[in-house]
Design goal:
alpha/beta; FAD/NAD(P)-binding domain; 9-stranded mixed β-sheet; 6-stranded mixed β-sheet; 22 strands
């Protein structure tokens, strides 16, 4: 069987991997995307209730890639983020001035997947191989090769690992990430409710973990909708998932203080264990890692996908600039520049997320009082609030062109 030749071989066709392929195509770089999942299953109604916050910087990326018109009608703007310790007094309200726009947009993951698949299908420079499984990876001085279990061989100049937290490409390359578990599990579901959310994202902290309510657009019948991400202790997760629908909704309503009125489930409940990993090195010979293959964190701040999209924007800029200089896309200098550019951002966001998780997980009245005192101080400080909002919007630091307005 003859080999398929390309420039970049991307293993992993999730949101980060597919966005990378689209960005490379716009820069004139051909890629083959290999993904083990079936797109029909990934985009089926009710596949899961997950939703993602797309930051301002990530929205700029999708705008530059020509996806804004398609995505805009599907996303709910986040006009404000309310952060509270167990719904007690002393909360923080992050609300940017009108001239700054929203803090981001919430999308159902299914809608993002559909848009990515459609955009990739329009690009002649992208070859998508779904339901494909990798048997072997090879990297050498002059190129890379991937052999699939069905015998197909893909040859390229650069291999990108984008398979997510359990990345076999990362493990095979011998990267040793720092990693630990939190003993938590995130329970995710879609909700509809009788009262509007007013485009506010709620982050309610309880000792067992954060309880997030993320605004979605109303459905076709006008029902108000939100995505729930409820963090529970691992030992309690099976019991929470086993609750009947009415009992589950009662527990949810109690934790949100009834602020949205009567609730109804709009998707099956799903759950994922929560852990942390961070890889200091994200490149090797003709290899780069992006997204959760390089760094995975607690969803407490909703930055996981956005951090991966920042990887994409930097890698596309570095490779496209190298191409203009006549360099091979797998050139070690280009990969070293990508690693240096991403090192500080990924470490700072990962570390801050971990600290927040531990800080808000401290039980007891004294830690709660201290947290609320600190939150009240931030609430009264426009400078601190603006700093945190800029971080949440992804608009701080040295940004590649694709992330700028």
């Amino acid at each position: 069987m003859s080999a398929m030749d390309t420039e970049v071989v991307v293993i992993g066709g999730g949101l980060v991997g597919m966005t990378l392929a689209i960005g490379l195509a716009k820069a004139g770089i051909a890629s083959v995307v290999i993904d083990s999942s079936d797109p029909a299953a990934q985009t089926a109604e009710g596949f899961d209730g997950r939703a993602s916050a797309i930051s301002t910087a990530s929205w700029n990326l999708y705008t530059h890639l020509g996806l804004a018109d398609e995505l805009a009608p599907l996303g709910c703007p986040i006009e404000k983020i309310a952060v509270t310790d167990g719904l007690k007094p002393g909360r923080i309200d992050f609300q940017p001035p009108p001239e700054d726009g929203s803090l981001g947009r919430m999308f159902a993951n299914r809608d993002l997947r559909l848009a990515m698949y459609a955009a990739a299908a329009r690009e002649a420079a992208i070859t998508f191989l779904p339901s494909a499984h990798v048997a072997a990876r090879e990297r050498g001085e002059h190129g890379v090769g991937v052999t699939l279990t069905d015998g197909r061989v893909i040859k390229g100049r650069l291999l990108v690992g984008a398979e997510g937290r359990q990345s076999p490409t990362r493990e095979e390359a011998g990267f040793t990430p720092a990693r630990w578990g939190y003993g938590h599990r995130a329970i995710v579901a879609g909700l509809s409710h009788t009262k509007p959310h007013d485009n506010v994202a709620w982050e309610i902290f309880y000792p067992a973990g954060p309880f997030a309510l993320l605004p979605l657009l109303d459905d076709a019948d006008g029902a108000h909708r939100s995505a729930l991400v409820w963090t529970v202790a691992e030992k309690d997760a099976a019991g929470v998932l086993a609750l009947g629908e009415r009992a589950f909704l009662s527990a949810v309503e109690a934790r949100m203080g009834g602020m949205f009125g009567a609730l109804r489930l709009t998707s099956p409940r799903a759950s994922w264990p929560l852990n942390f990993h961070h890889t200091v090195r994200v490149v090797e010979q003709r290899l780069a890692l992006v997204g959760d293959a390089a760094h995975g964190m607690h969803p407490i701040a909703g930055q996981g996908l956005n951090l991966g999209l920042r990887d994409v924007a930097v890698l596309v800029e570095v490779l496209s600039e190298g191409l203009r200089l006549g360099l091979d896309v797998g050139d070690a200098q280009l990969l070293a520049r990508y690693e240096r550019w991403r090192a500080s951002d990924t470490f700072m966001v990962s570390a801050a997320t971990d600290v927040l998780t531990r800080l808000f997980g401290l039980p007891g009245r004294l830690p709660s009082a201290a947290r609320r005192l600190g939150m009240a101080g931030v609430q009264r400080s426009p400078v601190l609030k603006r700093f945190f909002m800029q971080e949440a919007r992804g608009m701080s630091g040295a940004l590649p062109a694709l992330l700028r307005a």
